[in-house]
Design goal:
Number of strands: 10
Structural class: alpha/beta
Shape: globular
Radius of gyration: 21 Å
Order of helices and strands: EEHEHEHEEHHHEHEHEHEH
């Protein structure tokens, strides 16, 4: 089954004041900075490291827990990293992405802890395989449904029911209605409710950095947190934050214009990393697996994706740089599709199509425009 559903409108509200959950154990009078006078920051993985370095400039020393090329979801924290975290002036992490980091931060006595998920809005639940975080377009019209458009403020669209679907609810993928017995058997193969979940989705989708608008909101919140932790350099942190937000706003504008007019609005990925990006720009992400990039899809899921590719004129299956491309290439070969890279920017390596977040995201935009037939 291939039901598409919008991100629920009910979102985890962004924390308005940093003292409410994002920060702990820090007052403006506390001394900050190591022996070199710099603010010592521990970042959980590259997207957090990038923000800290761009905002901090020469006033910070940033250490990342996830080495370049390391798959962040599977990170295990070493005793050395735990000890270094304890000595940090500020720990920046993204709750829900790396369980080992969440546990270490909870136990840590670091002076300031910043959870990036408290600085923007989240989807109530992560997208499941076959369910999209993207804005469904009106059937037959080729235009986005107005009620499904993301708001300009960065908040998800309003609450939507599951009326947007595939063959079983009128989207038109050419599947015949099955007798009750056959339908039940198909559901049992795909999952207990007819969907191939492929992952546990008991929390919000953490991939907020792939939406430039949400990422900019996190940058603003982090800039305030750093200014509070190191008031002597607050002015510089403010200027650097403003400059970074302008770059992210420009990136958002490029995506918005570059993806406005496309042949299809559906793209297939290895795992559900691009739900927020899809929601922002009116696209539909169909993932082989769920939020866990290492999970294995069922035969029913692969068959459903082959039908989706044919019905929605999809010609590309995207894979990632830090996880195996085996499943993506198998699907592509069986369905006669091509493959390309859509990078979730979880780390920068020599295989990355760019030297930093913005450059890799621009490469992602180019890949999406080609795959979607942008005009």
């Amino acid at each position: 089954m291939n039901v598409r559903r919008l991100i629920p409108g009910t979102a985890v509200a962004a924390t308005a004041l940093l003292g409410l959950g994002a920060l702990s154990g820090c007052s403006s009078s506390d001394a900050a900075g190591g022996s070199d006078g710099k603010l010592d920051i521990t970042a959980s993985f590259y997207p957090m490291q990038y923000l800290a370095e761009e905002i901090g400039g020469g006033h910070v020393e940033v250490t990342t827990l996830t080495e370049p090329g390391q798959e962040p979801h599977d990170l295990e924290i070493s005793a050395r990293q735990t000890a270094a975290m304890e000595e940090s002036d500020l720990v920046l992490y993204l709750k829900g992405l790396q369980p080992a980091v969440d546990e270490a931060v909870q136990q840590s006595e670091a002076r300031t802890k910043v959870d990036a998920t408290t600085l923007t809005s989240l989807a109530k639940d992560g997208p499941e395989p076959g369910k999209s975080a993207g804005s469904e377009k009106s059937a037959g019209s080729g235009e986005p449904s107005k009620s499904a458009e993301p708001s300009k403020s960065g908040e998800p669209a309003g609450e939507h029911a599951d009326e947007h679907g595939h063959a079983e609810d009128g989207h038109g993928h050419g599947e015949e209605e099955k007798p009750a017995g056959e339908e039940k058997a198909a559901e049992e193969e795909a999952g207990h409710d007819g969907h191939d979940h492929g992952h546990s989705h008991d929390g919000p989708d953490p991939h907020i950095w792939l939406d430039p608008v949400r990422y900019a909101e996190v940058a603003k919140g982090l800039g305030k947190a750093m200014a509070k932790a190191d008031p002597d350099h607050a002015a510089d942190y403010g200027k650097n934050t403003d400059a970074l937000v302008k770059r992210l706003d420009a990136l958002h504008t490029k995506f918005e214009g570059g993806l406005r007019d496309t042949r299809t609005d559906v793209f297939i990925t290895t795992h559900s990393a691009f739900g927020y990006l899809a929601d922002r720009y009116g696209l539909i992400e169909e993932s082989i697996t769920g939020l866990d990039p290492e999970s294995e899809p069922s035969g029913a899921r692969i068959k459903a994706l082959q039908q989706t590719a044919k019905a929605d004129k999809v010609d590309t299956v995207f894979y990632e740089t830090l996880v195996s491309d085996r499943t993506a290439k198998t699907l592509a070969n069986d369905a006669g599709l091509r493959t390309d890279v859509l990078d979730p920017v979880e780390g920068i390596t020599d295989k990355s199509k760019g030297d930093d977040y913005v450059q890799v995201m621009e490469a992602n935009l180019t890949a999406l425009r080609t795959a979607l037939g942008a005009k």
